[in-house]
Amino acid sequence: MGVPTGRVDTIVLIHGLWMTSRSWERWADRYAARGFRVLTPAWPGMDREPAELRADPTPIAGQRIADIVEHYAAIIRELPRPPIVMGHSFGGLVAQLLLDRRLGAAVVGVHPAPVKGVLKLPLSTLRSGFSILHNPANRHRAVPFTAEDFRYAFGNTLTRAESDAAWERYAVPGAGHVLFEGSFANLDPNAATEIDRKRADRAPLLITAGGEDHVIPPSLATSLANLYRSSTAITGYREFPGRSHFVGGEPGWEEEADFALEWAVEAANEFSPTVVSEAPRRHRAG
């Protein structure tokens, strides 16, 4: 199990769409127990209880990808040394955009939404976002995420009772603008999700996927990992069979959390150009 070293001792966890930073509570506790400083800052204005945001989703409706990225960039720049950055779902997209800014000692996209360049979204991905994407007017709204929506997108490997309990504890309305920005990036010449996929001076990147994930199925995660093949920097990929999009509480979540940390600590200490002055080398995790 990864432990802090002189080179990396802090982890920044970035939550995704339809969630708040509470979704990281198990991972944060597990990493803190290993001696890491763990930061779980919310998206701008979303540092509230899920019930409060469901009652008044105004802070969610105002979210924009560029603002979210700058919010986390400012937090990371204030740290004494580059942290490990992990992001789930749309938080994984934010993590990739931070990576493109050369922020972080190692970055993990946990079932991450794709940056610009992945040309085909699977049907299950589109269905997961249908409550927002079916109406163009939702671009400017915070759209309710019902228990039924959660059941399909996150809770498909749970019992209905478990899924409903997880919805109650974690789920909030979805930021329409953020989902539209991400889903239609390939049609926007000025997309906020565009990166330099050939960048060789970035930190190591790990992309994980769940075999039963409806939001980011393995086919989408694999297509995303393939975008980075033109870079000589480290890109790893790991699929976890039988896992859904609910990485924060699905039974067996510990395996993925431990793998992500071990990979990131090793990559940051041995390969990261932001931490050590060593030419990056190509490596893939199986």
UniProtKB/TrEMBL annotation:
Pfam families: Abhydrolase_6 (PF12697). It comes from the Bacteria. GO terms for molecular function: hydrolase activity. Keywords: Hydrolase. Residues 11-249 form the AB hydrolase-1 domain. InterPro entries: AB_hydrolase_1, AB_hydrolase_fold, Carboxylesterase_BioH. Coiled coil: none annotated. This is Lysophospholipase, alpha-beta hydrolase superfamily.
